[in-house]
Amino acid sequence: MIRTALVLAGLGLGLTAVMAQSNPIAERKEAMKAVGAATRDGAAMAKGDAAFDATKAQAIFKTYADAAKKMPTLFPDSSKTGGETTAAPKIWEDQAGFKAAFAKFETDAAAGASVANLDGFRTAFGAATKNCGTCHEAYRIKK
Fold first, then answer.
1. How far apart are CA 14 and CA 34, in angstroms?
2. Alpha-carbon span 68 to 57, nearest angstrom
3. Which residues, 6 or more positions from 26, have their beta carbon under 8 angstroms from its beta carbon?
């Protein structure tokens, strides 16, 4: 009886993992939530509302780099609609430009990963977050 329960629990966990991996809209929303949270923390540091913290700064840029690597893979043709997506059709029409935008975001995030002071952080953070606005302008449907 216990063995059966453990097998069923294992199958349930496996199915949950597969379902999460097969929902690119949900995955990209989660990635963007992480980027948004990192950006809020970074903006507070950049504005002086929070003290500069090199460890936190590195975490912000790591979040950006991780998202930049993952996001281009989360836009298969099957995810053009549904899930309350705000992805613009231009993503699929201009895959090269879309991927280039994330490559630039990743490069800028990598450049910021080693900042050691507030001035360096502000410069790197500004460059990285400028990518967000540029990408959202071109590849996101405004609500």
1. 24
2. 17
3. 20, 83
Question: Is the CA virtual torsion 73, 79, 82, 86 positive or negative?
Answer: positive
In sequence order, the 6+-apart residues with CB closer than 8 A to the CB of 108 are 64, 124, 127, 128, 131
What are residue 140's phi and psi, to 5 degrees?
Answer: -130, 140
Which tokens hold the place of 68? 């930049």
Closest of 109, 117, 114, 134 to residue 35, by C-alpha: 109
Alpha-helix residue ranges (DSSP H) falling in the chain: 2-21, 24-47, 54-70, 90-93, 95-112, 118-139
pLDDT-derived band at 66, boundaries 50, 70, 90: very high
pLDDT in tens, 84-125: 899 999 999 999 999 999 999 999 999 999 999 999 999 999
Residues 35-51 have pLDDT tens digits of 999 999 999 999 999 99
**Residue 140 C-alpha from the chain's centroid:** 14
Rounded to whole angstroms, the Cα distance separating 100 from 95 reads 8
pTM of the predicted structure, to 2 decimals: 0.82
